[in-house]
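OP here, attaching both records as promised.
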Amino acid sequence: TCTDDDDYVYASPYNAPAPYKAFEIGQINSSRNGNFGKFLDAGTGTTSLRWLASLFDSNNEDVSIGSYTAITADEEMQRRVSEEAQELDISNKGQIIIGNWVDGVKLNTGELNFNTRKKKNAKNILLYEGDSPEQFDTILVDYLIGAVDKFSPYFQDVIFHRLNVHLRPGGRMLILGMEPIADEANGVAEIASEMKHVRDACQLLAGERPYREYPLSWIERSLARVDGLTVVKRKIYPYKWTYEKIVQQIDLGRSRLDLVPSEELKVTMAKVLDELDAKSLRIMKGLKGEAFTSGFNYVVIVEKEKEQLQTE
């Protein structure tokens, strides 16, 4: 049951996107009084880091944060986020590290297994040194599930178990994701489906794995299998497509063409992308507001039960 007041008047110098505002309002209206405490950005990027930086802003009186750890499996993303942290003046308030959440999971069973840290010369397991894991008051899962298929495929079914190890009792997991673009659609939304197919084809031809988003229903089923976690809020945000958003994804396909081994395929796919670009522009110009709504982003706020005191 949601008790958060969506009509809360939010005052902040940072114009946070609506999903992040929902996280803040949820924190303000909870017993935490707006404090996110020790914060883990489990799949960081420049957008989530900018929001994280705003939580340190002394002018933002409604919310606060203690320290942060930001994780990415992508070395280029680590470089970009580290540069962003310097510009935002928060590099001394936390750490940005390379890591993959498949670390510490037995691949044949999906069970969590941290015993390898005791073996001689074994590498340290991500955020798990000594006899216990490092734990956080808040874990942000920002489009992380969609990225898992690219960086650690076939591991999605245990990702929440793996993250739960690092969530303190009474802590919160903040999940932001995107409902998958439909494989087929009617009307103008068909252009988004077509874009997805062509974009992913370019990545596959370049030898890369595309991102794979998961629906809200899958997220909730997965969370239900993790003992001690309870969904306290869910909200959807209808997605507004513009020509700029579609061409951004078309450009992602274009950026992979140099990696396609066949010159003939490169030429063919470049032509397909150009035709799709022109088609999407033509469609958008014919729409009211030059945009249409299809699909949605979603927010899920999850709380971990507090430890029960032992009584004799």
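Record two, same layout:
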Amino acid sequence: LAQAAQGKRKGKFPAMAHSMASSSYVMPASITWLTRSPTLPLVAASVPCRLQTRSIAGMRRPAPSNARELFCTVFPLLTLAAMWPTRAKDVRVRASLVGRVARRQLVAACIALFPTVARAGPDVGKNLLYSGMETFTIADSKAKVQESVTLFDKAASSGYPANRLWQRGLSMYYADRFIEGAKQFREDVALNPNDTEESVWAMLCEARTLGFDEARRQMLTIDGERRPYMRAVYDLFRGGDREAESLSVLEKMTAGGGADQFYAALYLGLYAEAKSDTEVARRRIKESVATDYAKNSGDYMAGLARVHMAVRGWNTV
């Protein structure tokens, strides 16, 4: 769970326990992806044996006494089975899927459904990270966003790696602390050079202080992005010969569904805001919040889109 929280969104993670427990959130549909692993039947078949047979020490392992214990026993095995590549060439594809969107959604589901288990242990830094994420996703003002920044800062001072706190960078953007936000994202990209969204968010922060054109010139170079919508987003923000084509691709995606529809609308809105086009920005962000993906996925970025609407005062417009 802790490793998943350190993974990127980043599919830049999902709404946390407080907001999810009191809303209409459901288990992310993407978790069904786990069932498509070719090794899953073997793992599933081994679970009863693990629960009922004797251990190496000769002691009988008791069956889980409740659903939470069963989840904690079985879920890691299913996750590993889904992640395990059957061919060498599958390694990078599986790593990309799990490392970006899937891990982010899984962590949200775990915290929402099993908050006590997720927060157990002595690691104060991780607990503060989770608290900061919860606080951000229910923020309705810059003051509330600043509270999440404070929690993220405390997480870093308590030992959580500061250059993995991409959540802090997002909060900095909505707290209007753009220089610090850009610094956070640039440090994150130094750790993970292939993180497209970190590069885009660094550019968004710098557009507020340097201007759009200068921020674009200084935009971090990223290679290896496999998600079609994020490749188009990167080319759009980067500019150049592919800008018009990328804009057209993203506009078409907004008429589709799933993650592509949500992220296309979200980043079209952020792009418009960076260029000071408030009307288009409001329309696109509102579209992203209205998607089924935003309502049901539990993705942290879906929470961010709602925070964007609240902080900008667009919920009443």
